[in-house]
Design brief:
By secondary structure, the chain is an alpha+beta fold. Helices cover 17% and strands 34% of the residues. It contains 3 helices and 12 strands; from the N terminus they run αβββββββαβββαββ. Helix 1 packs across helix 3. The chain is globular.
């Protein structure tokens, strides 16, 4: 029991740290920053050439790609698609990888978002499981799967259908769409926000993270949804 409690604390801390970086944004050419999934830097007007870039002028070239299969329940499967019929949105979902990098001599981590489709955070819950399923996506780069979030097309009350690798579908209903959250915020604000939205939950929850607006990335918008009972 003590080991389980300790693991959940470690899990929450790692999730919060990674989402803090995701919320923080990254810089544009000529020096791409540690990747956080954003499309432009705070106040920038042009997108980064590659969202996966994980080095800066002050960042060493030492990076390591890492994968993880940790979920709240080892039997729960990751999502392979996300669908919102009301707005004709159908997005492929793949597990994200993350990088370990050194910035100013400090080791840090950053998610690497896919350029096509959205990215599932592998340290979040599986589809339909008790816990927080966290999915991030570009609203500008690549095929911009989360542009509808940036455009305000997703609203409370809409249904989001997640499908897992076995073809099982689970319906979540949108309960909250945040106001655009500025980037950057203070470090303490970023950490608080990360902890709030990335932390494991006691109920089946879905969290979608997108940049905002649809033509740049100066803010974040986060969508929360809850599993509809017996909606498999």
């Amino acid at each position: 029991m003590q080991k389980a409690i300790v693991w959940k604390k470690i899990h929450a801390a790692v999730a919060a740290a990674l989402l803090t970086l995701l919320l923080a944004g990254c810089v544009t050419e000529p020096a791409p920053a540690v990747s956080t999934g954003s499309d432009t830097a705070p106040g920038a007007t042009t997108p980064t050439p590659e969202a996966e870039e994980a080095t800066t002028d002050s960042t060493t070239d030492s990076t390591t790609d890492v994968t993880t299969d940790v979920t709240e329940d080892a039997t729960a499967l990751p999502p392979i698609s996300l669908r919102i019929d009301e707005i004709d949105m159908n997005v492929a979902v793949t597990p994200m990888t993350w990088r370990v990098a050194e910035a100013d001599g400090v080791r840090t981590t950053a998610w690497v978002l896919p350029q096509s489709g959205a990215g599932w955070h592998p340290n979040s819950a599986g589809v339909g499981d008790v816990g927080n399923v966290v999915i991030s996506g570009h609203q500008l780069l690549g095929d911009a799967p989360f542009a509808p979030i940036a455009l305000g097309d997703i609203v409370p009350g809409q249904e989001i259908v997640l499908t897992d690798a076995d073809g099982n579908s689970f319906t979540y209903v949108v309960t909250e769409v945040t106001e655009p959250l500025p980037i950057p915020a203070t470090l303490s604000e970023e950490e608080d926000l990360a902890a709030q939205y990335a932390a494991p939950t006691d109920t089946p929850t879905l969290t979608l993270i997108s940049g905002w607006p649809d033509f740049s990335t100066t803010h974040r918008v986060i969508v929360r949804a809850e599993l509809v009972p017996d909606a498999e």
